[in-house]
Structure formats: C-alpha cells, structure tokens
Design brief:
This protein is mostly beta strands. The protein is 6% helix and 42% strand. The longest helix has 14 residues.
Length: 656
C-alpha cells in the first residue's frame, strides 16, 4: 500500500530500463516493455542482508571544508525514509547518483547488466555535504558537480575516491546566496569541458572545468565587490531568468543551452554558444590564429585599423552547411592563412587572404567523408576519416589547392580508432587506446601545385606501447629538441639526417588535468603540474621574425591561472626539481578564457562575455576579445638568470 501512494520525484534510464526515485526513499525499475519490478531501497554493505566478507563497507566522504559542520548522521538507507529528490546515471562509469531530501548524496555502483539487475545496485560511498540539492556527472572527465543550498557548486574527482577539487560561486562577483538562492540545476556540455548552473531565485552561469566564468545572465558587477549589487526595479527588462531557473539542458553538440524560468515555466529560453578551437583529441590548430566557431559560422579574432582586437563573423556557405550541419571541426594552417572546416560530412577550405571558399566538386565524394579530426601539414590538410561501411579509420592527405579524390596524395589505413593526433614539421603522431603511440614521417617528392604530380610517402619511425595506470590522454604535442646550447630547435636543415630531426619528447595532457613530458626514447614520463585545461607549445610551429617570446617553451592554463615555462641550458631540462614559481597568488582574469598567442607582441589572446543593451526584452550576449601581455614574465625570467649567474633547469612563472 505504501508503494501505491508513493510519488515519482526523478528518473534515469539506460537502453533497457528506467529507474524511478520515489518520495518514500525507494527506487523502482521499469522496463521499456512496461514491466515493473519490486521497489527497493539503496543498501550499503553494512546493512545489506547478503553481505559477504569480500564486500567492504561503504565509505562516507566528508570534504575538509565541511568537517566543522559535520554531524555524522547515519546514512538514509539505515535510518529513515527520506525522499529521493534527484537520480542520475552514468552508463560509461556504471555509476548511479541519488540525492536525498536530507541533502545527502549516494554514489552507487551498477552491475554489468545495468539497471534491470537491482541486486547489482549498491551504495559505494556517501557524500556528506550537508546541503546538496542536485548533481551532474561529467563521465569523460570523471567529475561530479554538486549544487548546494549555499548557492555554490562543489566539484569532486570520481577517479580519486570523490576527492574534493574546488568550489565555484558568484561570491567574488558580488552576488551572495541571498541574491541567487540555492542551486537548482547543473548541466555539463556534451564534451564535458564546461557546465551550466541555474539558481532558484535568479540567473544562470556557465563555467569552464577550471573555473573560468564563460557566461552569466546577471548584471555585470566588479570582481571582489564587497556588497551584492542591488536589483533595479526595471532590471527584469534587461536580465533573463530574473524569476529563477528550474531546468537547463544542452543540445547534442553543445551549441545551444535551453533554460526554463522558475516563475514562467511555459517559456523556454535558448542561448547560443561558440566553441574554442582546442588542441585536443584528433584536431590540432595553430596558436597564431585565434578562432571560435558556432554551428554555422566561424568567429575570427583579428585587429582592426586601430590595432584593437575585434571578432569577425564568417558564415559557412549555405550550400555546404545546409547539407552537413553543424560545424564540428575548424583548424587553422600553420601560417594562419587557411581554414579547414568540417561538418557531419565532407569538408571545405577557406583562403583568408583571398577570401575564397574551396569545395569538393563531386558531392558524392564529399558525402563519403565522415571527418573525426583535422590536421595541417604545411600545404596539406589531413583528414581523419571514419569509414562507416567497414567500421575503420583512415588518414586522407589532400593538397589545399584541390579537394578531389583525383588529387588525393595518400590514404593511410589506421589500426583502430585514434584518440589523439598531432603534427610537428614532417612528423605525425597518432595515439590509439589505451596508450599506443605511432610516429609517422612524411616525405614529399615534387612541387605541391596543380601543374605538377607530387608523390607523398609515409613511413613509420617509432612505435610505443605504454602501460600506465593513469587516466588516458586528451592531448599530446610533439616538442622541439633542445640543442647543446639549450635553445630549442625551430627549423631543421633539409640535408640533416632523419634521426637528428625526429622529435623524441612530447607533452601529454591527461583527462584529469595532469601535464607531463614523455621521453619516447626510454618511455619515461615526468609529471610537471596538474589542474591544467589547455596548453600551447611555442616552438612547435614556424615562428615569425618578430617573435618576442621565443625564449618561452610552452604555456599552460588551468585553475591556477596561466603559467609560462622556459627552457634550460642543463643536460636534463625536463627534471622537476628546482622549479621556481613567482606570484602564485595572482591569477589570469577569471572572466577571460585564453584562445592562443600573439608572439609578435608577446601577448595571450582570450575572450570574455560582453553584454550589450537595446530596446529588446533581453540583452545581447557577445564574445569580446582581450589581450594580456606576458612580456613582464619574460623580463623577470631574464633578469633573474642574469643576476643569479646560474642556469636553471625549468622555470615556471605565473602570469598576473
């Protein structure tokens, strides 16, 4: 009888079943054939009737920031019938998250047979946050975001026993919990690089995983304001979601965020977003051209006549985008003068100098290409193509002057689905799961022009299979070799032998944000830092003569802000000891997301949200480019080397 009066409060589902959370603290599994199982309560091993010696007791995770307020209450499965107010399932992680009305969070393992095997659903850990309201799981990043009644979002690392990572809030922007109310909903983007947060009283915000505030519906206030900004009587005209946010959801590609207002549930608001060209996965782009892209356009960051940075909107031709929507990959060539753009099928090229698009002449050929990644190798665009008929992957080498199979320079079948790719000079890096690295060398005979018949040869020069318990890589960049003088090689002489040109080291960014250097000669991996979201290798591409940051080896960006890394004159420049970090308390602007570098002026270019007002009901949210110099870090480095009269191993400075 109790089950008959229970009310559904939330649900989650897999391919075979649906799981309902009930107001009496029970869970109900329903198959897609409308077959109901008996309702059950979540059990930890301590109170399970079929406990075995092989099963360890469930753990209670109490974050350090909340230990002072912890009252060590028993778990809901042992004491009461608290309602389940939120459930979420991660099929990839086999993880079920349940939030109870008393604000406790249960992290449960799910059996191999999924939800239909209720006996396989067991509490593995309790998050004793004390004020949890909702959760959202980033399966790719293995991060759990917990929205709290305090108006903050707590991030936990699921790969490390739910270790507390950081707390994000609008407090530093002058908004307290009295302004926002508790967090009502959280939604990660499909690629898990950012997440949106809605509050009960007012507003919506989007953060990157490292804590950069990418977008906010609140009226803009100065950072570190002591008081919460007062809401003007007519502010509702200029601020969406003034009545609070009840639901949010990203589309399948992360270009649109849909939101429902708490006080106006019959209307759905849609916010359009542009993505950054990140050096992740199967695409690698130059840092000298700063690009964002939307579902049907490219946004180019470039200076105007007064050298002020502006964003130029470049619409993808309708003849291509209408058949191959949306835009999925955008990569700039090394010189920054060509763009390769790929949608669901085929690809197009854009000549920035002549402002001309180049298409496949044969639509049938275009539709046979399912681009999963793009690379530039000089004047050649490399396409990682998925062949659906055979479930295989291949690399296609097209000259930029002609998109047609008659001009295809080379077709390289791959061993499986690649997870990371990169290009350095004449070398291509391809990494397969779990961590098999293959390095190919490209040799071209003849001139790359429509009037000649060039021949491309591809040879394997290195193969590594690395066994590591660490999280998988999301980005790998081959880095220049240091010379005896300690200066990184930029351009190699064509007459030099192959072994002297071949890169032997690469930077690895893993899913958990760890940045390390891999020595491919001996397979040794040296950890450098963590909490990294992006990085740029300065010496990996052709440099301008006016490059002001040639002393820099690479930069990284993450929760700690921007960090600059310098080369060493020592015999082993990749050792970790003797690091020196200056100004650790200063951070990169937390409203500016870095896009790339301007080596000729020694600056990092980023983008932030700008809000413009008009007579319309809502404001217009626009990306606004900003530049921040790093020359002071370089000067500080050079002065210290000169004054100390010693040669450092690796110096790491923080950008203010």
């Amino acid at each position: 009888m109790a089950n008959a009066i229970s009310i559904r409060s939330n649900f989650a589902c897999d391919s075979k079943s649906m799981l309902l959370g009930l107001s009496n603290g029970h869970l109900q599994v329903v198959s897609w054939n409308a077959e109901f199982s008996d309702s059950f309560k979540l059990r930890c091993s301590a109170c399970s009737p079929d406990k075995t010696a092989a099963v360890v007791d469930a753990l209670v995770f109490d974050p350090p920031s909340l230990r002072g307020n912890s009252n060590a209450r028993p778990a809901p499965c042992c004491t009461g019938d608290f309602a389940i107010v939120h459930v979420e399932l991660s099929v990839k992680l086999r993880l079920l998250v349940a939030v109870y009305s008393d604000c406790q969070v249960a992290l449960c393992t799910v059996g191999k047979k999924g939800l239909k095997q209720t006996s396989g659903i067991r509490v593995d850990r309790w998050l004793n946050t004390g004020d949890a309201m909702c959760t959202s799981v980033a399966s790719e990043q293995q991060i759990l975001a917990v929205g709290c009644s305090r108006g903050v979002v707590e991030l936990y690392d699921l790969a490390e026993n739910a270790r507390h990572i950081r707390t994000l809030s609008l407090f530093d922007w002058g908004y307290s919990v009295e302004d926002t109310g508790p967090v009502t909903c959280i939604s990660w983007t499909p690629d898990n690089c950012a997440f949106a947060v809605g509050w009960k009283f007012r507003g919506l915000t989007v953060w990157s995983v490292s804590g950069c505030r990418l977008m906010c519906t609140f009226r803009q206030a100065g950072s570190n304001s002591a008081l919460s900004p007062m809401v003007k009587p007519n502010a509702q005209k200029f601020e969406p979601l003034m009545g609070g946010t009840s639901h949010i959801q990203w589309d399948d590609y992360g270009y649109k965020l849909f939101a429902v207002e708490e006080s106006l549930s019959e209307r759905v608001l849609a916010f359009s977003f542009a993505k950054c060209c990140l050096n992740r996965g199967l695409s690698s782009t130059t840092y000298t051209r700063q690009i964002l892209y939307g579902e049907d356009r490219i946004l180019l960051v470039q200076p105007d006549d007064t050298d002020e940075l502006k964003i130029l909107h470049l619409n993808v031709p309708v003849s291509y985008s209408s058949q191959n929507w949306p835009v999925l990959h955008v990569v700039a060539s090394d010189d920054g003068m060509y763009l390769a753009v790929a949608g669901s099928r085929g690809l197009v090229l854009y000549d920035l100098r002549n402002k001309r698009w180049r298409f496949f002449g044969d639509v049938t050929q275009e539709q046979k290409i399912q681009c999963k990644g793009l690379l530039w190798l000089g004047k050649i665009v490399i396409v990682c193509n998925y062949v659906e008929s055979s479930n295989t992957y291949e690399l296609l080498f097209f000259p930029r002057y002609h998109l047609d199979h008659s001009s295809l320079l080379y077709r390289k079948p791959l061993l499986g689905r690649p997870i990371v790719m990169d290009v350095f000079q004449d070398y291509i890096l391809v990494t397969y799961s779990p961590f098999d690295v293959h390095i190919f060398h490209v040799m071209i005979s003849g001139e790359l022009s429509p009037t000649s018949s060039p021949v491309l040869q591809l040879s394997t020069v290195r193969e590594l299979s690395i066994m590591s318990p660490k999280s998988p890589p999301v980005s790998m960049r081959l880095i220049p070799e240091p010379t005896d003088e300690g200066v990184l090689k930029r351009d190699t002489n064509e007459s030099s032998n192959l072994s002297s040109q071949q890169p032997s080291r690469c930077l690895i960014l893993r899913v958990n944000g760890e940045l390390s250097v891999l020595d491919m000669d001996d397979g040794h991996e040296q950890a450098l830092t963590n909490s990294v979201e992006l990085f740029w290798v300065v010496g990996s591409q052709e440099e301008e003569k006016s490059n002001l940051i040639k002393e820099v080896s690479w930069l990284d960006y993450g929760h700690q802000g921007m960090q600059v890394w310098y080369p060493s004159h020592g015999a082993n420049p990749f050792r970790q000891e003797d690091f020196l970090q200056l100004d650790p308390e200063l951070e990169f602007d937390r409203e500016v997301y870095p896009l790339g570098l301007l080596p000729n002026v020694g600056a990092v270019v980023g983008v932030s949200q700008r809000t413009s007002f008009s007579t319309a009901e809502f404001p217009c949210f626009e990306p606004s480019p900003k530049a921040q110099t790093i020359l002071h870090c370089l000067l500080r480095h050079l002065l210290q080397v000169e004054l100390a009269m010693i040669v450092p191993l690796w110096y790491m400075f923080s950008i203010s």
